Predict the structure.
Amino acid sequence: MDQVIIIIYLIGILALGIFAGKGIKNINQFSVAGRSFGAWIIFATLSASFIGGGFSLGNAEKVFLFGIVNIFALWGFSFKEILVSQFIAPKMYKYPEAISVGDIMSRNYGKIAKILTGIFSVILCAGILGAQVGAIGYIFNIFLKIPQIYGILIGCGIVIIYSTIGGMRAVVFTDIVQFIVLAIGIPLTLIFGIHHAGGWNTIRLSVPATHFTFLGTQKTLLQFIVLFLSFLFGETLVPPYVQRLFLAKDYTHTVKGTLWSGIFSFPFFAITGLIGIVALSLKPDLNPNLSMPFVINEVLPVGLKGIVIAGMISIVMSSADSFLNAASVAFIHDIITPLKKHEMSSNQKLLAVRIITIFVGVFAIVFAIKIKSILDILLYSYNFWSPVILVPLVSAILGLNTNKKQFFIGAIAGIAGVIIWSFVLKKPFGIDGLIIGLSCNFFAFFTAYFINKK
């Protein structure tokens, strides 16, 4: 019965994506779906897109290993969403024709900045997409006993098909269904898991007490602060989330949807993390990567298990399709189009973005086969965004008087900071280079800004 439910669900998602994507005629519709959605749909699609394998499977894995400190660290992302809703989303009305981050950057920093933004967008999105695709393989392997490589091919194949045909409209409509399934299925997994383990008091007694302390088993206060800041800044205004800010009828819907998404993420991250605690209580010698799948297999009855597994598939597919769409749009709109001497026609752009969607999906499949830890690969991917793009992007959106020189000075400083800290100094104190690179960009950018202003 569980397998039948999963198969029906996968066929349904594929059919919905293809149906929703009918009538796509140009790259604007492919990337922002006509800017016609309200706050609730923004909330659902944004939440579905960021709750990927890293923030679910990866969160359970890290809590299994280190304790609830990882939940607190992930709340950095939640605070980020609230900050974006209050300070960034209200400013998006200034970009009525934009369909990518590169469009914002080009207005303030020129064509070369747009191309560089496109390059880093593709690298970031491909890396995060690879993490989601790898998670799809895990899920198919654990629940359906399908070899991981075949699970990756099936799950990613479905995402590639409806994303290629339907673009953002297909992504949004499938996200809505996927969000509903995961918002119901994952909390049920924790409830059944606690009951199966004998109640919360039993779990507390069977799990090391350090797992319930603020800093967990192996984190110092400095490491926690850096990890919190990595989640706060790492995915801030990455391409798929910026695209969501372009989807609404007007900015008030964008503000509401983004705020609700941030608030929703607080309890959801706690739930996915505590599933890792339940797994540790039930089987201390378990492979931490399998924490959430193990609990689902162990505690849920037939029928409900199939629905929850569908929710697990929803988690990673809803994130994968968002990053796949963003990567393909960035490649064509932000890199290829500015480099071409002759303007591409509307049909040529649409055909090109669909072809690139297929190629990026195939690349992600290859990348996913090499993945070890989903959450680690997310943190690694962040190094290709925040240290280079975040500071000038936020400055532009907030309306500061910025220029090309400031962008390049900040970008060079950010890249140098990451390379020196991570590869030359080998990450002193176990601190990732993201925050160092971001800090270097910030100080260099604003030093140039104030000199220019003076």
